[in-house]
Specification:
The chain is of the alpha+beta class. It has 14 helices and 15 strands. Helix 2 runs antiparallel to helix 4, helix 6 packs across helix 7 and helix 11 runs antiparallel to helix 14. The protein is elongated.
């Protein structure tokens, strides 16, 4: 009778022992956790200290490199994408008049030219009143960047710095040392966070930094460029700072080729004067350091442009065109503030323009209006309707005549400027076909001309086509006024394009 209680007591004792081993008392567990946390904090502090020492060593070495190893580099004139002149006047397609079924000879009536209704120029932009900046504490600035408030810490010595005369390499080295000893980390963190939160592209990040430098050193270009150089390098971008005479210049490495902008070559890397207001035309002599920053730096990537971060400022464009004997009138909203941003982009590869979306304002305005017509159409009819819209709604003028230089336009910009040429029409047409029809489009570059071709489910034998990667596309030329789907300009119908632009 005593055996069972004894076994129960032994089992209970073992359980208590195991519980004490596996689940220590709260006071013991808390002590162990505090010791563990302290150990982790000490390890983190050690890592931070080691990393800070590593950065300081890098900055000292780089500042030392800047005192010497400077050379004069040749500046090259901007590259030209389309070398052949574009036509000042574009051809107008005349519809074929069917022959009479009777054998009696007839004199055909000349076919009327297609109606091209020239829209009025865009309404002038009147900036809305900006709210007063929110009060900020000492050593904190707030700037408005395309309608967004961006706040950041700054070190007062950045605003007071003045570049000395005399030996430039020595001055650049001293500037780098001064900046590296200042409180720059919080600023780099704040601007990096702002860029990520606003979902900006690489060019947006660089222009945000430029706004920061301009705020810190208003009306002092050399000091602005020095600050911008330091901040961009610390943000991981490959930027070359140098001088010509008393002026400080910046050249930026780009992942894509840039056109109509001066450039230099340092080793295998090409750097462009994309941050210069005159595209580097005034830079004739340029001295820069031969050394590279110890960390690996990246070139700017302008695969596509962000169209959602700007706080929209609506503008309106009236458009009219004739289709199958009916005049269609549209009033289309677009984002003027986004147009201002896109105008700052360096001229790059055609893919940038084809792969950049319209603003939400444009998408929600133009696309539904056109969809009222295309929704009930078949594929060929819908593509033909959009072709007529682009051909006849927008007057033609070459870039040189409108801007005095070659300039490619994004979709949003085509709604803003009074005239567009062949590249701009191709970009706009390709975007509309993609959004409203869902068909694949490619860009076709010929000497002095760009057009498009569309992948259709059914191809008529009389269509002009081009084969790309084994697939047959139908020519659709938004610059050949009055031309229907499958009609190529006579000058190019027997040519294969010199380049095909694959559109994502």
């Amino acid at each position: 009778m005593e055996t069972a209680p004894k076994k129960f007591n032994e089992s209970f004792a073992v359980s208590i022992f195991l519980a004490a081993a596996l689940f220590p008392s709260p006071s013991i567990a808390a002590d162990d956790f505090e010791a563990y946390k302290k150990q982790q904090q000490q390890g983190t502090q050690k890592i931070k200290a080691e990393f800070q020492g590593y950065k300081e060593k890098q900055d000292r070495e780089f500042a030392g490199f800047l005192k010497g190893q400077w050379s004069e580099f040749d500046t090259f004139r901007g590259k030209v994408r389309i070398k052949e002149p574009k036509p000042r006047q574009i051809p107008v397609a005349v519809p074929t008049v069917p022959l009479s079924p009777t054998p009696a000879p007839i004199t055909p009536t000349p076919a009327p030219s297609p109606i091209v209704v020239a829209p009025p120029p865009p309404q002038p932009f009147i900036p809305p009143p900006q709210p007063e900046p929110a009060p900020v504490e000492a050593d904190v600035l707030e700037i408005m960047f395309y309608g967004n408030a961006v706040r950041f810490n700054f070190d007062p010595q950045w605003k007071n710095y003045r570049m000395p005369g005399g030996d430039k390499p020595e001055a650049m080295s001293a500037f780098w040392t001064m900046m590296s000893g200042s409180k720059y980390e919080a600023t780099v963190q704040a601007i990096g966070d702002a860029r990520r939160n606003l979902i900006m592209d690489d060019w947006g990040g660089v222009t945000l930094w430029r706004a920061v430098a301009q705020t810190l050193q208003p009306a002092r270009k050399s000091e602005q460029n020095l600050l911008l150089w330091y901040f961009l390098v610390k943000s991981g971008y490959d930027v070359r700072m140098g001088y010509g005479g008393n002026d400080v210049h910046l050249f930026v490495a780009m992942k894509q080729s840039v056109y109509s902008t001066k450039y230099i070559k340092v080793g295998d890397q090409t750097y462009y004067a994309v941050l210069a207001a005159d595209y580097g035309d005034s830079i004739h002599r340029f001295y820069t350091y031969e050394a590279s920053y110890p960390d690996r730096l990246k070139p700017l990537d302008v695969t596509s442009a962000s169209t959602v971060f700007a706080k929209a400022v609506p503008a309106q464009r009236a458009l009219s065109f004739e289709h199958q004997g009916k005049v269609i009138n549209l009033s289309v909203p677009y984002d003027h503030r986004l147009v201002e941003y896109l105008a700052s982009f360096p001229q790059s590869e055609f893919e940038l323009y084809f792969d950049t979306d319209g603003s939400p304002l444009l998408r929600n305005g133009l696309l539904p209006e056109l969809k009222k017509y295309t929704a009930t159409m078949g594929e060929k009819e819908a593509v033909g309707f959009l072709l007529a819209f682009v051909q006849k709604s927008f007057p033609y003028k070459t870039d040189n005549d409108q801007f005095g230089r070659e300039r490619y336009l994004f979709v949003e910009e085509s709604l803003h400027f009074p005239y567009i040429d062949c590249e701009d029409r191709s970009v706009l047409f390709a975007w509309l076909v993609h959004e409203l029809v869902g068909a694949k489009v490619i860009g076709l570059l010929y000497p002095g001309h760009m057009t498009t071709a569309v992948l259709l489910k059914h191809v008529k034998p009389e269509y002009s086509t081009v084969v790309y990667q084994g697939i047959q596309y139908v020519i659709a030329d938004p610059t050949y006024i009055g031309a229907s789907l499958g009609m190529a300009m006579p000058s190019y119908e027997r040519l294969y394009p010199s380049r095909v632009v694959a559109i994502q």
